[in-house]
Structures
1.
Amino acid sequence: MTKNLPAIACVIGALLLTACVASCGSSGTTSTSTTAPVLADTSSGTSSAMRNITSLELSKQMSPGWNLGNSLEATPDETAWGNAATTQALMDGVKAAGFKTVRIPAAWKAHADANDNIDPAWMARVKQVVDYARNAGLVVVVNVHWDGGWMQPTFAQQATANARLKKFWTQIGNAFNDYDDHLLFAGTNEVMVDGDYTKPTAEYCSVQKGFNQTFVDAVRATGGNNARRHLVVQAYNTGIDWAVDCNATLPTDIVASRLFIEVHYYDPFDFTINDKSEIWQWGSIATDPSATETWANEPWVDAQFQKMKAGFVDKGVPVLLGEYAAMLRSDHDPAGTYRTYWDKVITKSAIQHGLVPVYWDNGYPANHQMGLFDRASGAQSFPDVIGAIVGAAQ
């Protein structure tokens, strides 16, 4: 999600919101982190079998996940959107709560010069935050987030966007080359033509798929551990239906079984993130039809995730559900009954269908927000919601 625009309805769940809502085990060798989960290490000292863990195998060890939203993608700096600077205590708190993965949305263009050279100080800060997460024992996903909207999937902007994407991922890849399989790269975020939430045209689909290929090629070209790093490519606008229609064929890769595909989920919009809506109940437990959507209940969730299972997971391609969340509606539901239930159902269905659910936390614990942790201390702001998510992942 991105922060800078007013809320815009989108039934496939890729949304732009204001700043106050969103930035709208197995056997193996552990890393050097003292509390790292046991995953395959890609360092030269490990066996070939350990280095050859597939993305599908890795995905089974990553749930549930959590987003460090509205922090490193904030511009012009990390605290500009109101969240405290990220600390080791926060990552320790996320790990202690039961999460296994952290997705770190990051802006890069805002920290690069006119020739797209990334500021070394910014690269060092991103590495520091990644290290906090790794020290806590979390699997990490780093991406190029909305970042000002320069990645428009049109023929007119294709060459410029691809050149910038290649340059950024070459620099990011070189900076993190010695990190092991606990670090994944995700090439883009919610790529779409600004304001157009309809089904992608052949042009849009072709250019967006080209961005995915550029990302994969750029990272692989940096060699070392990046030659086999697990990479995450996105569906058009991270929509499930668009994934099936537009992205069924993944980028060409020099190594087999090292790609994820990413989608997001915010259905139904009026319940999850539309702060102007009076829809505040959801699902089979709803009691007031006037406060409940007529679509996107439990069967819809299962059907959508089944599309990803049949189209990707069953074919050996893991799916990262990179964002999902329902906002707090304390004005209608002080106990948070319905949002907690929604979060639980989405988490459980995702895992049952082989998806890795990564909750979107925008950092704010107030009404109409999605924050679960105190960003300064790492303390849990909503243990009931956290418990529902983590419990559903068991």
2.
Amino acid sequence: MVLPAGSTLPPVPYLVAILAAGALLAVVLRRQNLHLGTNTVLAFAPWMVAGSAIYAAYEVGVVPPIVRPLASSPTVYVSTAILAGTAWLGIEHLDADERWLAASGGLVALIPLWATTRDALAAGTFTPGWSLFAAVLSVALAVGLWWCFGRARPEVVEPVGLAGGLAVFAHVLDGVSTTVGIDVLGFGEQTPLSALLLDVGAALPTAPYLGTGWVFFVVKAVLAIGLVWLIAPTVRDDPRMGNALLLLVTAVGLGPATYNLVLFAVAGAAGF
């Protein structure tokens, strides 16, 4: 089993509708052959945040019942992808700047973020300190890693640009936030593969001093840089395919990281 604990499928009518809509959109996007560059990868980042923010809102019970089946995991990521793909299609047909794609994702993300924050403030459980700490630390670490990597391998950084840096940041943020959640706040890990890495960290003699999450962080950071390194030639030679892979790598990191930060902030996590 590789899906996170708590994963569930929606009722059949919702499932049929979401699969049909996803398949139809995939066919349309394939036929339209839309431009997919590194700026497009960056523009989709707010949509990645939106999907995970919606799932966090689902977890804390603030999603309206009528759309709740579409906000569970893993359905929420398909639902969000359909919204993002539709926005992308519309913006491309309007010949609008890709910043509009980012803006639309940001607006969608604001809805669950506002709802979860509002309810947490009302309940007295809004504690954003550790989330802010993880975010700031992740920015510093990711910038440092990306700068060092760029100095060592400029031929890799050149074709991927900021989109490559975003992919590395996404996984660094996932690693840092997971470490904070496990070692500081006492949260559990839902994904079996991630839990396995945390078990490795817990079994090492460094656990009493460094905690259990550092192994997970190191693996995530190294894996992100390695994947960007492997993808960079494809981005240069076949931009559409390369950037699609870069988009996937980024989403796999930024999605869980966002979920962690939102949950820590609204669940009354101990600390500051």
3.
Amino acid sequence: MLFPIRRSRRTPLALLLVLTALVASTLLGAPSHAGADTAGSVRLSGTVLKPAGSVLKTAGSAVAAQSSAHVVFVAASRSSSSSKEKIVADVSVNGGTETITEGAAVLDIRATSTGAYIHGSSSGLTSLFGLTAAQAKTLGTKWEFWKPDTKQYTNLKSNVTAKSLQSLFPKAKGTKLSSETSGGTSRYVLKWTSAATSTTPKLTNTLTISTEANLPIAETSTDAAGVKVTTTISKWGEPVVVHVPSPASTIASSKVTG
């Protein structure tokens, strides 16, 4: 969800955290949460008990019914401000936009039903997307373009479509549910851990969901080293307009990568 498709670069720590915490599923529709009902329940309005599994199922259905959203990821380390990475995306059913910044490196992605495009600074094209220095020089200030019948188009478009938002929800047993009220607004708070793998660290995750709209508001993921990814989701259902670059400002991918 919402990440540049790197061609030949290891996944940076910021994306490592997000990929583990968020990219679990890209199937549109309510996710399955086997065992979640036994993970705890929360009392709302002093009388109603609601199991965690029920909250997750309702929220999954609410997200599946949405056509778009605005998503912001910020990843930072306690020990180094230079490692901060930010991803801002507007996703919709038919495509969207995404901008990634990491220090001086910048990469823009746009995808519609007719094509996918990337554009960025020289360092963004190389460090965030994996182009060689020579390829980045060939592209220059133009947009690299892929037609719909290519694998790269499919990958890029899948990053900026609304169905990827289903991956916000935990699937592991042990999800803990509570509630909080801030500014007169009630929210569900779900907490769980993601086990470490050979390529990702163990993560502690928190997801807040609106009790009124049943839609996610924010999620945080933190590892033992203090790297924290904060995700905020807003503007549910608002129109997303993707401005397609003019033909004169694009270069076919085949001319950039050979």
